[in-house]
Amino acid sequence: MTLETPIEFLKGIGPERAKFIKNVLGFTTVEDFLTFYPLRYIDKSKVHKIGDLRTEPDAEIQFKGKITDIQEVAYGKGQKRLTAKFRDDSGTLDLVWFRYSKWMKEQIPLNQEIFVFGKINEFNGIFSMPHPEIEADEKKALSGTLLPIYPGSEKLSKRGLNNKFFQTVIADIVKNLPNLVSENLPGSLMKSLNLIGRIPALYHIHFPKDLVHFRHAENRVKFEEAFFFQLGYGLKKQHHKASVAGNPFPKIGENFNQFYNEFIPFELTNAQKRVLKEIRTDMKKPIQMNRLLQGDVGSGKTMVALLTMLIALDNGFQSCMMAPTEILAQQHFNSIQELLEKTNIKVRLLTGSTKTADRKVIHEELLSGELSILIGTHAVLEDIVQFKNLGLAIIDEQHRFGVAQRAKLWAKNKIAPHILVMTATPIPRTLAMSFYSDLDVSVIDELPVGRKAIITAHRREKDRLSIFRFAKEEIEKGRQIYFVYPLIEESETLDYKNLLENLEHIIEFYEGFNVTMLHGRMKPAEKEAAMQYFASGKAHIMVATTVIEVGVNVPNASVMIIESAERFGLSQLHQLRGRVGRGAEQSYCILVTSDKLSSDSRTRMKTMVETNDGFKISEVDMKLRGPGDILGTQQSGVVDFKKLDLVADGKIIKVAKSTVETLLKNDPHLEHPENFELRTYYAKQYKGKNKWGRIS
Ligand code: ADP
Ligand code: MG
What we know:
This protein is α/β, with parallel strands linked by helices and 696 residues long. The chain is built from 26 helices and 22 strands. It has 4 domains: 1-40 and 145-179, DNA polymerase, domain 1 (Orthogonal Bundle); 46-142, CATH 2.40.50.140; 254-425, Rossmann fold (3-Layer(aba) Sandwich); 455-611, P-loop containing nucleotide triphosphate hydrolases (Rossmann fold), CATH 3.40.50.
């Protein structure tokens, strides 16, 4: 037997079953079984006391005692169950059978020392054990180990592939472990991290001798997964740094200095300064920058982007900045054009709705080099858009773009442009450490001074009148407000109708104030006009769907009212809330929900009320939704760890990451003799499997 041996040759399988298993579980080799880890374990090594029983739903435990009485009890419509009183020296427990035969009833031993094993049910504070396993032989009952329970299914069980089957097949495999696998981590590393060997780990993960062995085994298996995953990224990043050339931007010149000294309207925050320095250091080198800029909503990423583009310009290169929606692109264009008003730097906007004649001008100016900064949507990616010398590409709200789209930017210049991707959706630390390991990450962890924390409240629909009144007072103080309504795609027409109805109510209540509306069905020009009407301060109220979710910046708006807030995810709520609190005024976010909320919804509302910290919110979000959903569809399928849990195992991931960093620093090509096994294993195991593509 080797790891590659096809499963049909295993005892108890054969070609027929092998085919079935392959269809259901995808297993083809011994290795697939070996890495099919138990879901949980049952502990028959211990005997519990009935008197100590607490509610532990689904716990399977064992007692030692005597059955003192058996009775058939009628219940329901002519049905009968069998109930036995079971006692130990601390209490009594009912054993219950809902299905039984006369023969079975006669087999139940009375007044004899026995072991019973099974799940505990609780009903009105009374405990019972349905369908217990009964064992009179002490040796068999106290098997002394934890028994594995494998993730099974009815489909499998029906074909005899039940837990017992998996136990037997895998027990046969682990007997051969010394011939099947060898150590893949250097001894020094295992010693310093207190890791057990690979062979004992694989043994005790299936058949742990006790809890202590199990913990060591689990820790080793998890570490191994995290370690080789990080090694993959580490090697990729190293390779990128060694091989992807970039245009060095050594200069800080006139454009940057003039803007910085004369036109910048505020003092940069320390975080903005630090991040800018990190970017500068990258771009000085003849290596392509590949950097992720994370910063909570309102932290001032746009200014960092602009200053970065000015550095490119000072070094004789063009820049482009891409945003996921027309509104955002338009807004970036407006604010950047305004900031650059007194310079003679040329900026243009390219989106899906740019007129043909204007496009032609843009194309020409890009080719001649006359245009320094291009701002746009996906339209920038089209093949016809060619630059004279694109030196820098910035992607705002990067999670909205697919990998392929981002990759297109690389091809826009002979020497790939430096890439800066920006996101306001903070990624939980464990995810960032895992999935963005091949990017350099900068974080703006500070908001501009003078911002007041947004006050968030959770209200019910019945409170609407007081909410409306509160908002009116704010408008009277000179502020502007948002009303946001959810939009579900399946019933777009219905939602649209709702939106219009709500709009009517609002117009009626806020008589004398100007109301504008923004939703996905409007044409770009209409959207732009509505946005402009609100941004200019002429409209007091913006009624919108989530079109305004990302990036919209109107500093005078101070109240965000989110209707049916339970229909939004956490990161979306946080994004929406980020539309207020952008000026010096106290801002408010009001989450309106119905009375009946699921427990997840309640957690979401509570989290929003308790914190404004996007990183904390993202952690909760990951716990609620799981890492796959957080990463988004573009990278789904990458979180197929067998044992490692991205939510719970942050500590292991951190250790693995720093271990890999030290390893590659000391031995970048894994040439030291003590890293021989590691290298061989990696090459065999992970070659070609590195499917998680680069982020940009
Ligand atoms: P985000 O990081 O969400 O993209 P923006 O770049 O839109 O944030 O900035 C939010 C607001 O804060 C803008 O009005 C911007 O002009 C302002 N701003 C940015 N940096 C500073 C700063 N250092 N001091 C004061 N205001 C700033
Ligand atoms: Mg932004």
